[in-house]
Amino acid sequence: MDCKKFVEEQISQIKQTVGDATAINALSGGVDSSLVTVLGHRALGEQFKTVFVDNALMRQGEPQRVVKTFADMGIPVELVDAREEFLSALAGLTDPEEKRQAITDTFYAKVFSRLVRESGAKFLLHGTILTDIEETIAGIKRQHNILAQLGIDPEEAYGYSVLEPLKTLRKDGVREVCEFLKLPAEISQRIPFPGPALATRIVGEVTRERLTTVRAATAIVEEELRDSGAFQYMAVLLSDRATGIRDNKREFGQIIVVRCIESTDARTATATILPWDKLQHICERIISEIDDVNRCLYDLTPKPPATVEYI
Ligand code: XMP
């Protein structure tokens, strides 16, 4: 692919389409929305606003780290604290699809639509890639049309337009353009992380306390497996409990699952054959550093039948 030509064409198209108006995008920290942020900023400068929504479901220090990565590139990102809104939408929900729906609805119908309205932007830049479009058509993915998600009828809300500068690229193309633009490796080489974030790794209700537990376990697993070369690795909090003994006292503690997979596109996956001493070390850290966790399991299941995430 001719990356230089791609970047020049997209920047000129964004400039031409937006003209004197303003545009907005939501940055998740993932590679697609990161590239859109860089292209939008290069094309529009101060006519472009980027928001990062803290949904309470992010990893340890993630919102601040993403904002700093972009600040270091001279790109301002507004950090929006929507933690309460997401946590209250998730309260009491245990069904996986209901949890996912609550997160989607809170993001689009409440938080992002309010930010778009308040910004006065007439254009939304969105990191849709070719695979998203194909998977929507094939019925694998839920609707990715951002205007539909925002509940905006383009006819009625005349003036709103969505630009999808990455819609001809697949993931490898997106990474190639990121490398061409010399974006930091923490963007271009980032391991996949789902939009609903840590909620996909909590079986049962998502609460502040349970997020603290899975967040701490995630930090340990990511630190320990960073150099594993695996496709993706994570920690999951189960809703079951198990009996254990700590300090001579019986406790009915929590259970963390460690999952680490080999894959090329996440459609199929196998468990990584990790060295036993590495697994033991991770287990040791999880049960000693995290309150109330007294069991740690390693997931050996391939996809299919298991999915990568737990909800
Ligand atoms: P599953 O769990 O479906 O995951 O086997 C396959 C890949 O997709 C990621 N994933 C998501 N990514 N939004 C995303 O952006 C989501 O809702 C979502 N669910 C799963 C998962 O991390 C894995 O890489």
- Helicity range: 40-55%
Bound molecules: xanthosine-5'-monophosphate
Shape annotation: globular
- Please report the total strand number as a whole number: 9
- H and E order: HEHEHEHHEHHEHHHEEEHE
Kindly report the spatial arrangement of strands forming the biggest sheet: 3-2-1-4-5
Low-confidence segments, ≥5 residues, pLDDT <50? none
Secondary structure layout plus pairing:
Blueprint lengths: L2 H16 L4 E4 L4 H14 L3 E7 L7 H10 L6 E4 L1 H8 L5 H24 L3 E3 L4 H8 L8 H4 L11 E3 L7 H10 L4 H4 L19 H18 L6 E15 L2 E14 L7 E2 L4 H14 L3 E6 L13
Parallel strand pairs: 1-2, 1-4, 2-3, 4-5, 7-9
Antiparallel strand pairs: 6-7, 7-8
Helix pairs in contact: 1-2, 4-5, 10-11
The chain binds xanthosine-5'-monophosphate.
The site of xanthosine-5'-monophosphate has 11 residues, from loops.
